[in-house]
Batch of 3 targets.
Target 1
Amino acid sequence: MGVITKYWHDTWRDLTVFGGFGFYVLLLLLVLVLGNLTLFIHLLLGLVLMLASVVLIRLLYFKNRPKKQSYTNILEKIDASSFPSLHAAKAFFLALTFMSFLAFGGKIVLLFVAALTGYSRIHLQKHDWIDVVFGMLLGIGVWYLVMLI
């Protein structure tokens, strides 16, 4: 792998973190430390709803990732399934949640980062377009549901 190809791949690998579990938990902790209990509850509820939805969907419908993962138990099978993209769901949920705190330019940046996060999953061969689009729709749907509560 050439240097440019390596850095190109590394950039997409780094971008995928915005839909990752660790990043989400760090945001949860930061919001809690800053004392915004309402936002903390919204973020936590969103995470629980997205996780529950993805696990249920993947239990009922298994779809191999573009780069197949082997599995030996039910938890590994859930992880090996690609539909829908949980990273895309979390990225769009977070973008929509934090958009209310920003001016127009900041909102565009958040949506752009969420879209790049979704694309990173395709580039890294974890998902295809359908997985990412349905993950995005899941994140938007969960955000809407949480905002109603």
Target 2
Amino acid sequence: MTTEPNPDRTPNPPVAPDADSTSATPRSHSAEARARRARSQARSARRSGHSDAERAWLLVGILCIALVIVATSVFERLTHQGEALPGVSLAGQDISGKSATELLDTARILIAQRGSTEFAAIAGKNELSASPAALGATYDPFEAARASREAGRSNPIGAILGTFMRRGHTKNISLPVSIDNAMLAGVLDGWQRSIGDGLVDGSLIFKGTEVIEVTPKSGTSIVRPEADDAMREAIINGDTRLVRLPVGETEPVINEAATRRAARKARALLASPVTLTIRDSTLKLDPSSVASALTVRPSGRELQLVVDPQALRTSIAQSLVPLETPPKEATFAVEGSKVKVIPSATGTVVDLVPAAKAMSGGSHNVDAPVGEVAPAHDTAWAEGLHINGLVSTYTTNHPCCMARVTNIHTGAAALNGAIVEPGATFSLNNHLGQRTLDKGYVVAPAIAADLSYEDAVGGGVSQLSTTLFNAVFFGGYQDVTHTVHSLYLSRYPLGREATLNYPSIDNRFKNDTKNGVLIITSFSSTSITVSLYGDNEGRTVRAEGPNIIETIPVVVEYTEDPTLPIGTEKELFAGHTGYVVENFRIIKYADGTEKRQRFRERYQMGKQKVARNLDPAATTTTAPLVPLL
């Protein structure tokens, strides 16, 4: 009989063939899974515990570092209040820790240095340069100091980070600068014109009252506005290295239309006379007078008419004479040994600048104000010199009516009235200038380098120089430089005289007092006098000497002359005895102290030159002086 399986009955699980095998039931599988999960959770719990601790310590570390950074930043600012922070530089110069005053001083020094350094550029093969001022750059020292002081303080977070970033990288502040674009463009315009190849700007030429237009032409030159941008960037960055400017096909700055506009304005200005009103007077300026003062100059992309006020003054000078009064300088009048001041007076002058400006704009009715013009030396100046009376005077004599006398008188007239201010050094050469015929000097004998006499324009002025030197000597003023003649001349005091030659040999003295010196000259047909007026602060002078230290006897130089009768001689030059001589000047001051000054001079010996005919075979010889019979 066959038995049907019961579907509702669960069959018995198969028995493992190995008696040692463990039987697995559903309940035992579930327990094992739970155990595994428990073990995993335990391990996760242990790991989670470690991770939380690590995160906590990491957070503590970060907070500590942040606190250190903040504390350091706060400390830095507290210790540098009103000062530049560490690691800050201005235009490349370290300014760490500098106070506000020091920052301003530093900024001014750096700006002065920047202002004296030209910006250089190269366009093709052309090297160009211009000063910051010419390029329109203006630097602000106050803004530079403020920016330096505020560097690293503006942003709290940035300030904190900057405290450490500046330790390895300096924060540099550029010099604040503003740029006048018109001035910058003007320099670039000039460069463009100067290096242009074939480039011609439009312009105007004036021939009398005729206006001639110069046709503009394109060519090769600096490319704009790229060149402007390159120079502007260099100025802002303070980069004085060579700036390379682009070069290419360029249009002229002043084009044909601008040229025509300027020509129309010029022709309109010169079409009729200009009425110039000066107070109650009216002058009619004919077009030719205006045209002689009219020019044009570039102004951006236009041609500007310019009437030059100085050229206009030259053109109408004669018409201005009755309308102006020249200023009167303060002068001195000598009355015996006393001096009085002749007061100065202001003058009047027509100011043509406003009129010229109005004419440049095309106006035909213009006004010129009359202003006062002060003298260069007024009454207060003259009185402040304290030129009260005669200090010293000296006279030298000369024969009448020789050519050299004319030169003495001409030089004396030029010297008369000279003023030497306190502390100033007076140069006779500078005051007289080169002696020339057009100044009234004439040809007269002078000592040449070989000790002979030669004709020279101005010969004889050494006597004026000698007279001045002695007046200075006895006035107690400081001798700066003087030179005695090469040969002793008996008309002068031995060793106390001064020659003159332009420009190599000068006669200079210093007014070493607090008062001025007035030089007055007078002369006659046989004498020249130099007098010094002022106040030498109570000095008195006495002279000692001359003391001859050495006498250098004359030697004879013989020259054979076959044209002379045999056995005869002829004197060509008498010769001069040489000397070494000393003089002393003793100056006694108001406080009773004395100064003794030694003047040691040397005169050369001049050979006596004799021609003779003793022996046809004889040559030139020298011998001690033998008197000629």
Target 3
Amino acid sequence: MDLTVEVNAFRELLTSSNNITILLPETATADAVAGALALYLSLTQLTKNVTVGLAKPVTVGWSHLIGINKITTQLGNKNFVISLDYTEGAIEKVSYNIAGAKFNLVIEPRSGAPVFDAKNVSYSHSGMMTDLVITIGAPTLQSLGKFYSENQTTFDEKPIIVVDHLTTNSQYGKVNFVRPGASICEIVALMIQATQLPVDSDIATNLFDGIATASRNFTTSTVTSDTFAAASWVLAQGARRKQSLPIRQEELPQKEVVGSSSTEAPQTPPDWLKPKIYKGSQLL
């Protein structure tokens, strides 16, 4: 597959970005997760500050992927958020003042409304601090769940790179690596290879796992020469193939031993083996 234009744009964005956020959709597949982690491991070797996020907890089935513990369900601490119990119409005015080295946020209750209680106040952080967003396997921004809904301004302001293989992808990025039919790890492998990003056996292992999983061990109708070329390349980079589990042999139930009957079997006649001559229905 020819991705020359996309690769050149990708290279330029990487050069100008130090903080990079890789995001997966809530419906992420094993192929997408493997690709995201491979890219994460590669970019961190460039001393980039990289975050990889998924809005829901990872599944047990992905636990073998290298770097799975790096996936976070929370993004950023750009904004300091103060939360308190609120009843509609209870606030008259919100203002602030600075006294020396102190910033004071002033919340004035409306006449007749209860005074705010300090014990009902909580604090948190939100907001991505990033220079570049890379989405993996996300057909739309909305498929990212809370990551998009809570950071829409960031998505409007920062460049986005889209990596996907779905025909339904809306290609919402500044750079779109969208190739229907290819596995996501196949696309990521080409991105890493074409831009000469760092690759080691861990990165290659994740990529091979994703390619093999998406293609059902290279048996689907979407497998092409590009698929085998990508698999061959990651194997050459030291990918470790998963060992096939031995087929479990089920133990067959043992046949019950039939106990000997107390009744003796009839004795064989002494002339049993002697030749016999029949005529009609009579024995001669």
